[in-house]
UniProtKB/TrEMBL annotation:
The keyword Transmembrane belongs to this UniProt entry's keyword annotation: yes
Transmembrane regions listed in the UniProt entry: 87-112
PANTHER family: NAD(P)-LINKED OXIDOREDUCTASE SUPERFAMILY PROTEIN
Protein name stated in the entry: YdbS-like PH domain-containing protein
Superkingdom of origin: Eukaryota
Taxonomic placement: Eukaryota, Viridiplantae, Streptophyta, Embryophyta, Tracheophyta
InterPro entries in the cross-refs: YdbS-like_PH (IPR005182)
Presence of the UniProt keyword Amino-acid biosynthesis in the record: no
Keywords recorded for this protein, A-Z: Membrane, Transmembrane, Transmembrane helix
Domain YdbS-like PH: 113-182
């Protein structure tokens, strides 16, 4: 008796089953964790046509244009707080009840007030965390006056702006040099006017 034998490929059903299982498991995980489409699939691709100028600028003209568009670098002339002598003198006189408010003002100036003079602007930084900041350019300065304090070790710099605003900077160290610097940058006369009584 003859037995009919059929040859069936052993690997093909398993391979098909494995591909179907992988495809099904991929779809299952894709539903659990959907991916966001990338931005390149959402918008059409556009091409930008850029042409170079027919007459390129000369090197001297290009250098002049680059120097005019580039701002000058900011250099700091003075950056600091009130003079330490102001704090020391007011602390010594603060033991009297009459002088106590002035002592508290001196302590506030010493710890929470900074002046910065650069070649481009004047900056006053104040407040507990330095969040109060005032900047103005030298172009808006109309006049600069100084008031010496103590024996001339420190003083007040009073800057009058063109709109009539007066900015009073108290207990500034090197106040005469700073005032002359402000006048020279603002293209004003270098003659300083000292006014007011000398005191603390």
């Amino acid at each position: 008796m003859a037995v009919a034998t059929t040859t069936t490929p052993i690997l093909s059903p398993t391979t098909t089953l494995t591909r179907q299982t992988l495809h099904t498991s991929f779809n299952f995980f894709a539903k659990l964790h959907p991916t966001k489409p990338t931005s390149r699939h959402l918008r059409p691709i556009t091409k930008l046509q850029v042409s170079s100028p027919t007459n390129p600028p000369t090197t001297a003209a290009a250098a002049a244009a680059a120097s005019s568009s580039k701002p000058t670098e900011e250099t700091i002339f003075f950056d600091g707080g009130a003079h330490y002598g102001d704090l020391l003198a007011n602390l010594l006189l603060g033991f009297t009840l009459v002088w106590l408010p002035l002592t508290l003002a001196a302590v506030f100036r010493a710890f929470y007030l900074r002046y910065r003079f650069t070649n481009l602007r004047v900056t006053v930084i104040s407040g507990l965390t330095g969040q109060d900041r005032s900047d103005f350019s030298y172009k808006v300065i109309k006049d600069v006056q100084v008031v010496p304090r103590f024996i001339g070790e420190w003083g007040d710099v009073i800057i009058t702006l063109k709109d009539g605003t007066k900015v009073d900077l108290r207990s500034v160290p090197k106040f005469r040099e700073i005032a002359k610097y402000c006048l020279s940058i603002a293209d004003k006369s270098d003659v300083l006017t000292e006014k007011g009584p000398k005191g603390f």
